[in-house]
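Subject: for your reference before the review

Hello V.,

The reviewers asked for a structural picture of the protein, and I figured it would be easier to keep everything in one thread rather than splitting it across files. Below is the amino acid sequence we used in the manuscript, unchanged from the supplementary table.
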Amino acid sequence: MTAAPTPDPLDGARLAALDEYGILDTPAESGFEDIVLLASQACETPTALVSFVAKDRQWFKARIGFDPCETPLTQSVCAHALGRDGILVIPDLTRDPRTRDNALVTGDPQIRFYAGAPLHTQDGFALGTLCVIDSVPRPEGLTARQTATLTALARQVMVQLELRRAIENREQALAARARAEEQLRLAVEATGIGIFDFDLATGELRWDARVRALFGVPARGPITYAETYLGGVHPDDRERADAAVRAAMDADGVGVFDTDYRVIAADTGVERWLAARGRAIVEDGVAVRFIGSVRDITEHKAADLALKATEERYRLAARATTDAIWDWDLVADQVRWNEALTLAHGHDLGAVVPQGAWWLAQIHSEDRDRIARSIHAAIDGTVETWTDEYRFRRGDDSYAAVIDRGYIIRDDAGRAVRMIGAMLDITRRNETERRLRQNQAQLDTVLQTMPVGILLAEAPSGRIVFGNPRLERILGHPTVQAEDRDGYGAYRAYRADGSPVPPGDYPLARITAGEVDHAELEAHYQRPDGSRRWIEIIGEAVKDSNGVTIGAVVAVGDIEDRKRAAQQQDILHHELGHRLKNTLALVQAIATQTLRNVTDLDAAREALSARLVAMGKAHDILLSGESESAGMEAVLRGALSIHDDGGPQRFRLSGPDLAVGPKAALSLALMAHELATNAVKYGALSVPDGSVVLRWEVEGRDRADGSAVIHLLWREQGGPSVLEPTRKGFGTRLIERGLVGAIGGTVRLAYPKSGVTCTVTAPLSGLLES
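And here is what came back from the structure prediction:
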């Protein structure tokens, strides 16, 4: 039972006022019929009624879209509007406590939206309403324009009632009717609706100014159905529009005209979409009149067509995509999936339970609780979007890694009522990312452990983005993360001539600037500790698939040892040449002196050979070491070795370990050889028990002024009695002048009968000079 309306519809004064109009159970009248048609058009509802609330029923003077001519008072929604000054709007009859149990709501025709303007007499009594009804809820109610139109049309209903009462006074009636028509015209103009009236008996077709403007015909002048109306309809819609009109004029049909079609304005050629509604007036089973309205719906139609196109694109995209798209009705707990659930995940749509529980059950057990909490937190909150990743079971019981995104739709109260989303399979992407991470790790390991320094930079900016640890060890400082090529000045490299390398000359700078694809540079790099090391920089361009340089990589190697070895090689070559020239000069001098005034060639050849062997021994000792000097004892033993016959203690050498320079070594070896040769011929070595003591010592070695001297003593003992020679040969001169001539100092030869002695005093620096 519907709740009792307020105020009481059974009020005696109100019922008496209704009876005074004598309107109940009267035939249909065009004035009222026009009003409900306009109300339906203006408010865009399928149903409009002129309703009068009587003692036991509500009766409809005019109706469109509603079959019964009356309903019991218990089913009256209009009764609730009687006590209002303005329009009563109920957006959803199922939710309003006054109407949710109404039989017209719970049963056929299942009305859902209601808006009614009360019909007030001049004395303030509400006789009924002019109302519009829809079969779907309209949360937005009526627009301001629709509200104003419905109010104006309600006043026109009362004008019609008043006209009926004042029919006896024709002038008054005509004036009232003129006012009503003017108000109706203004109301119609306000709604943008055009009116047509087709007299079927005479064939006369009348259009108001609005219809004429829409069809692009003059404001005055004759119009016809065939030429003006059908001629103005778009060719593609003409046959359909004509069929709709003829169906509405069929006395055996529904008598209603409701269709959309396109017209082409005769004056401008502009194409418009019109919505046309009308009905036929039937008398004695014959349609005698056809009236209705047209409304420009071009913008609405364009929006509708765009929406349909969008929906079609969405439908096609949903079919074409491999994303599993879902649509979840949160109120009914119904989930719909697109075909990708089968194509991408192998689930038969016919076997899928269309509920949220089935979906949740397919989520991996380790992810299920987390996703349930995540999605319900979004639904129960205020956000509009949700995103998460999880594992989704496929039809073959394997699992796909997916990223799921959803959009939440909420009602006016903020409650989530629907959620639409898409589930993207990212299994391959995750595997690709895993491989990329693995490859990156391997690359990082290679770069970090390479035996050369690596530097990477972007092009064209030149910004340095990477330097490996080996580079830091070579340069002696962390990688300078320069933002551009000008920042390369922080690297301090020098050319062979000592000039600094400009920032733009580094291989990295030349390549990122686009000058070259390959560049090399050898430079002397200054480290933070002040030391310098030679480095080699080799760079190559990094290009994209189109051949455009996007970066550069350089390898930096420490070539200090190589450079030093090359320098030492140069020095060695130079020294070898120098020594060879000196040796040849010395050999030439020895040969010249040995062979001068010679009478015995065999003896001279033997002497020359022995002297050259002594020189060779000295050279062997010099070249056997890693330095340019040789040990003094080794030089002396090498020179004396050819004279050592194996006898006990033939040569007794003693003295500090000294490194003799090459010049002194050759002279020292020749001097020792000559002394030993004389000893073999005439001295201590000419007898089995003879021996030679060779001793040397350094005096003043710690002197800061470098004045240290070396004393060398050659003393023969155990030999025959010595006689001082009467003349000096080349050998004696070589002893006296060879070493002293090379390094300075003095040589003193003495010939005591006990054995020859030779004392050498020379500067230590000359002996050691290399």
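For the response letter, the relevant points are probably these. Residues 101 and 684 are 151 Å apart (CA to CA). The first helix runs from residue 12 to 21.

Happy to draft the paragraph if you're swamped.

O.
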